[in-house]
Design brief:
alpha/beta, Lyase 2-enoyl-coa Hydratase, Chain  A, domain 2, 2 domains, 7-stranded mixed β-sheet, 3-stranded mixed β-sheet, 12 helices
């Protein structure tokens, strides 16, 4: 729940490959991300160039850790930019097959950093929001189509939504406000038994953000979503499990191993392009107005992938009773289906 814009002294974040795999591909491929198989021995790289997050790539899994433990990993504009950059890097690196997100210390994310006091959510008065200009017109009216109006949590949520890699949340502690809404575009949320959750926006005099009015009812149903958002109460991990917000609960020491085991189960034997395309198909068809749209997308997918080296290898390896070695890369081989996989503009 924070806006974009760089604070004084904060450097812009440039995307770089994490595991050393090839990048490339067209702007369309980079926009949707790049992914490929796990090659060679396990590789590991701890990346410390970020200020608010840590990234560690090992054996095809990128772990992103929110790293402001002294502030309970409270969300800031800089954290938003760094998380977006990390997902850009993950999609651009063919060696990354899955992403895990967790938090340093005892919290996952305690919500927006309230250091600006009562002006925290008054974007018109926030100096860190001014680099794109002001949406306030001379007559005092607001141009709501102006990019300066956009909430930072929504920008992050949409980037995660567009990920070509499975995204798993390892929610190790309190996840409140943007701390929980940023997890809604994750494919799976695993939680520590010590985790707590809260859609606390109504208690702060604001409303849910990060596109959560789209994600949350689709994940847990409209009644459960409204219960949590109307009451704005904080609830425990057992209620999150019962309500369908999380997949499973784990002892704190077992959380990351469980998330890594799930990441390997999802990707070790699957074609990277198939995983990337399936992720886009499933998430985007949640909002389709008619199953015909899904039929169009499925048909294009079967047609394009049926001619691929991956499909030939998948069938031949089955007939040969051996493990498949899929040749295709998302950076080069992700299909273009036009408007069926393109995002609308903000306006």
């Amino acid at each position: 729940m924070a806006g974009g814009g760089r604070r004084p002294g904060e450097a812009a974040v440039a995307a770089q490959p994490l595991l050393g795999a090839g990048r490339g591909g067209s702007d369309r491929h980079r926009r949707r991300g790049d992914g490929h198989g796990r090659d060679g021995p396990a590789e590991q790289e701890a990346v410390s160039r970020f200020e608010t997050i840590l990234t560690e790539a090992q054996d095809g899994i990128l772990t992103i850790t929110l790293n402001r433990p002294d502030r309970l990993n409270a969300f800031t504009p800089q954290m938003m930019k760094e998380l977006i950059a990390a997902f850009d890097e993950a999609d651009a690196d063919d060696a990354v097959r899955a992403v895990i997100m967790t938090g340093a210390g005892r919290a996952y994310c305690a919500g927006a950093d309230l250091g600006a006091g009562g002006a925290t959510f008054d974007y018109a008065k926030r100096p860190d929001r001014l680099e794109q200009g002001s949406p306030v017109r001379e007559d005092g009216s607001v141009d709501y189509s102006h990019p300066g109006v956009r909430d930072g949590g929504g920008r992050l949520a949409l980037r995660i939504f567009n990920s070509n890699k499975p995204v798993i949340g390892a929610i190790n502690g309190p996840a409140v406000g943007i701390g929980v809404t940023m997890t809604l575009p994750f494919d799976f949320r695993l939680a520590s038994e010590a985790a707590r959750f809260g859609f606390v926006f109504a208690r702060r005099g604001i409303v849910p953000e990060a596109a959560s009015s789209w994600f949350l009812p689709r994940l847990v149903g409209i009644s459960q979503a409204l219960d949590w958002c109307y009451s704005a109460r904080v609830f425990d991990a057992a209620e999150a499990l019962k309500g369908g917000l999380v997949r499973s609960l784990h002892a704190p020491e077992d959380l990351i191993p469980a998330a890594r085991a799930l990441a390997h189960a999802l990707t070790d034997h699957s074609a990277p392009v198939s995983v990337a395309l399936t992720r886009q198909m499933m998430w985007r068809m949640l909002g389709a107005e008619h199953p015909m749209l899904a039929h169009r997308l499925d048909s294009r997918g079967i047609w394009s992938r049926g001619q691929s080296g991956d499909a030939r290898e998948g069938v031949q390896s089955f007939l040969d009773k051996r493990e498949a070695t899929f040749p295709d890369r998302v950076s080069a081989d992700f299909p273009d289906f036009g408007d069926l996989l393109h995002d609308p503009d903000y306006r």
